[in-house]
Amino acid sequence: MKSSGSITAGKDSKTGSARDALWPNYSPPQDLVITHGLGSELFTAAGDAYLDFLSGIAVTSFGHAHPHLVAALNEQSGKVWHLSNVFRIPAAERLAGRLSEHSFADRVFFANSGTEAVEAGIKAIRGYQLASGNADRHRIIGFSDSFHGRTLAALAAAGNESHMRGFIPMDYGFDQVEWENLPQLKQAIGANTAGIILEPVQGEGGIRPISAEFMQQVKGLCEEHGLVLMMDEVQCGVGRSGKLFAHQHYGITPDVMALAKGLGGGFPVGACLTTEAIGETMVVGTHGSTFGGNPLAMAVGNAVMDLLLEPGQLDEVTAKSDYLMDHLQKLVAQFPKLIVSIHGLGLMIGIKCVVPCGDMLNKLRSKKLLVGKSGANMIRLLPPLNISYEHLDQALQIIEEALLEFQDA
After folding, report:
1. Dist. CA 153–CA 133, nearest whole Å
2. Which CATH superfamily is domain 29-58+312-408 in?
3. Which residues does residue 51 pair with via DSSP β-bridges, in sequence order?
4. Residue ranges of the chain assigned to CATH 3.40.640.10
5. pLDDT in tens, 94-136
6. Residue-wise DSSP of 226-281
7. In sequence order, what are the beta bridge partners of 142?
8. Domain spanning 67-308, CATH architecture
């Protein structure tokens, strides 16, 4: 392609609104500006209330302005914001200890986002194989329809061509196989394979929980071939599935796990958890983060853990999930020409649509219910883990009203 000349050509003056200064890589609704939130609701300057069933894409795990989280952040903000990891951060040590106590993990690395946690895990897989004398084992197998983040290695791990196009000039040492295709997975494992990465519940790929049988088969192959098993629980972890971590539904343990989103309850934080054997290979100089594990994020992360570990909290997530899914199944039976199936685990739920899911999303938003999209024509529901039954009923009523309007159109 020939150059069109200077990259500043055509820009004679700076005009337009302030939002024009942003990259155009997002497409938010231009007529909706949120000013504040409380619990499961978001509010505009005009006072309109929206029921939030997106939670910042599974991030605001306990809703907006939760008093315990606000208090933790406010208290820490008056002490110290940032030190970097050249100094000890006691709150990070406490959060790492709590995550370790309640998981398979022995070691934790803190980052700022899910994609950073995934990248840390990728490095840990390869670092472990190298330290074990397997320098030739560097390739990692991922699955179709996965999503692991927007950085280059995370994009390459997922292998989604629409996300990679123009950005990934090589495979970066990753192979992809079809979701739950055991023969293809076996064929992909070779002398250079270091590990396997998967989401126990695919998010962007259609709110698809992995089958118990396939999960066990993957674990068995990792043990047979000496591969590192990595779980990406950035979206499905931290209580969203009804257990603290989604892989716990399957009775297996990974070697590496990436967390983020709900772990900070709205404050940016990511974490990569590993076994001792893998974590001990990540010595000084192998990895780092300027902001990862900062005092503000760690204060909020510990406050989120306080809420998650309250007796009965995860049982409540399961009960509300059962309630929501049962009522959504009734809507499928009532409107089979508009929606066809319900998918998910815990409070990570997808509604497979017949009508375009974008039209459904817009209709629901016009009725003050905020949802997301996922996979092949699917609406994604990610309410706060502490959503009330009153708000569950309100959302169900709105969904039914929207379906009636589509039916009558």
Report:
1. 23
2. Aspartate Aminotransferase, domain 1 (3.90.1150.10)
3. 41, 369
4. 67-308
5. 999 999 999 999 999 999 999 999 999 999 999 999 999 999 9
6. TPEEEEE-TTTTTTTTSSSSGGGGGT---SEEEE-GGGGBTB--EEEEE-HHHHTT
7. 176
8. 3-Layer(aba) Sandwich (3.40)
